[in-house]
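haha ok so turns out i had the wrong file open the whole time. this is the CORRECT one, sorry everyone. sequence first:
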Amino acid sequence: MNLVLAIILTSSLFVVFNYYKIFQVSLIQAICINYMVCLIVGFVFTFQTAPSDDMMASYWAGFGAGLFFLPIFWAMGYTTQTMGLTVAAIANKTSMVIPAVVILLIEPALMAQFTIWKFFAILLSLGAIILSNLNTQKGNLSFNPRLILFPFIVFLGGAIVDLAINLAAYYTDPLYSAWIPVGAFTAAALSGISVLLFRGIKFKETLPFRSILGGIAMGIPNFFSLYFVVKTLDEYQNDGATVYPLLNTGTILLNAVLSVFLFKEKINTYLAAGILCAIASICLMSRS
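then structure:
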């Protein structure tokens, strides 16, 4: 059940990004507010856990991961709004190949698992991003080399976050795992407050009510998406090699379905090939 909830909540974030565009909600403002909401929800949700040294270890491990959240989340939102739910999901979720390779490289006992299949998985993940960015307009194949920068930023950023969260869950007490997202969202919220203050002072930018509502709509599922990822890792004894393939494959497929039914996005031949490459990459990376 934890895994199913993690897939649904993670997919919902891409949907909210698209609704920001429809309702003309400022992406950066809503993301900043979202992290404050995440932090409040996190503290309320974990308040019953008594503070201890073990709890603080989980908190600071999460804090380190959270320093990367704001810029990566903005790139993910921008990619969703300009290139579609499926493209953003592919870029974000095929990124699991990088933390998987890093863990294999830093753990000598696992190095024997770095087979030719893992190498093909890396190539397929990159191919998935490229294929998903190809479009046919008036029967001609088109490709925007500038726009592909954002999917690759999302790809690399997602890899950093996945690796950081996986290591945090691995090296801290599972009893206090709920404090990992609290620490992460503390760092992200502080980043968000700094950005809002800077934009308010530098550009005299106001904060409309719709940005606050947008932040709330994103913040609640955002906290629980990370919370249920951590709980799923606990359930699988921190086996990221099993959890992330299941989570990421499910998220890509669910986003592809949602993009068609909610936003009438078209799954052309190249995007379909990108989805298949993404799923194949994730399956090969999880192959022992």
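Strands lie at 135-137, 140-142.
again sry for the mixup
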